Amino acid sequence: MIRVLIVDDHAIVRKGIRALLSESGGFEIVAEASDGQEALLAVAATQPDVILMDLLMPGMDGIEATRRITSQQPGARILVLTSFAADNKLFPAIKAGALGYLLKDSTPEELLRAIRQVHRGEPALHPTIARKLLQEIAQPVDLQPVPEALTGRELAVLRLIAQGLSNQEIADQLSVSEPTVRTHVSRILGKLHLASRTQAALYAVREGLETEEAANPEGG
Questions:
Q1: pTM for this model (two decimals)
Q2: Contact call for residues 198 and 141 (beta carbons, < 8 A)
């Protein structure tokens, strides 16, 4: 039996997954959680074999929950199950320690197969996600030194971009306007010689900046 923890803020999604796994046989649902904080408690209490993790949840999101779980239990096997294929969710989730990344439009058979793969310690990726990863590997971000250093505020913005936050979410967190954040993003791209927000997120993730508190966040 593969012992599974289901983490999703929608009760109907949890109920559907529970029904699917129960009917399929070979799975035991050890607990459910509706947000990241509940997931941390459930993992500690039940020690599941596989954690099905939604990303967008109130309070602690799935990326932060994944990061905390894998930091406490490096062997934890987490399969992201989400509606989002955006790079600013995908790469932080993989960096945080997710072993698989599946979209919610996957078939029941694909979900069952992915759970079994992750349980065996094998990566499981939706075809769309696998293509994104291959494209980024084929065209890596240039990590050469840049002529201009980022200010403290720009580092703070870059770190939040890597955590998957939107411009408005960054503005709310830093107590600035959304146009101000857009200006910071433009300056970051210019200084790092990057073409897009996605490349900026990848740069930050590969440099480990998404887990660091930016120094002097009021600077610049």
A1: 0.65
A2: no
